[in-house]
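Protocol step 4 of 6: structure prediction from sequence.
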Amino acid sequence: MSAQPAGSRAAGAARVGAGGTPPARASETPQPEPPPRRTHTWRRATLATLITTAVVLPLSAAARPEIPAPAPATLPHLTAATLDKAYAANRENAAEASRMAAAHGDTHRATADRALATPTRDLLHFDGRGEGQATEVFGDLAHADHIAVLVPGSDTSLDTYARFRADATALRRELNHTEPRTAVIAWLGYKTPDTISTTVTTTGRADQAAPHLRQFIRQLRGIVGPTPTVSLLCHSYGSVVCARAASHLDATDLVLLGSPGTGEDTATALHTRARVWAGRGTDDWVAEVPHIKTDLFGTTVGFGTDPMSPSFGASRFAAGDGGHSGYFDPGSVSLTNLARIVLGRTSEVTHA
């Protein structure tokens, strides 16, 4: 094809506007300009979504019919000698809760309760009512030299217990590689907040949970005595729970995992004799959470200083490149360091 003469190109350009369309004729009425975009519309939509998510969804969840379950079993005074009786009583209670949930038509809860009722499960506590609570032991608690207590964060209930249990079993296997006289306890002893809710941004649920955690640790010391080390591994919102209870916990180590903050500005302000540790994976989204604490309509929102900040004063350990739910992944840097902390091999912990 031959090249177009320059004159023709110029004429064509004159006939075509900058937008690639022919210009309007002089006699034509100009089209009205589109109204300016209202940039605040998306803001209103975003706010509406946040309000709906944070308020309406929790209210809807609260309106869900309660799953029927028996009251917790009556247990003997817990000592090393009565552990087996307590385990058996709680398994029987979980089995009854499973039957009641099935009759109610909630097959998911029925399955979760039935799993807890199997003969291999050792439950120090079980309550199938509402969102449910369970305290499960992995290992020979009566003869353990080192004990780890896992405290979970938001969205943990009997319906999601399997993932929490997986973390506990992973830690138990890691500890067993070098020291068999260990025990791990998965403590789901409080009503955790929903991740998308107003309760997850305040200490309210933690304040309610703290007395129960203190009572449990006293009960645990009554079973095992003062000699074994006790490490609390507190994940996400669970770190707020541990912080609120810290001043009255007979613990060797207090480990904050993926913590949004504790509500205190320094580790010293926790008033604990335990060594305070903090770890966060490089892919953990909680790093993006603003570490603020402010009064909003009479309620304190946020948890203040980042525990990974040098000013907080915790011993920071390397947690690898995992995400918010990856601290107990088998083979991970985080799991290796957590096992070293629990075993008291602190000189081998790699630091962040």
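Step 5 (inspection) to follow. The radius of gyration is 28 Å.
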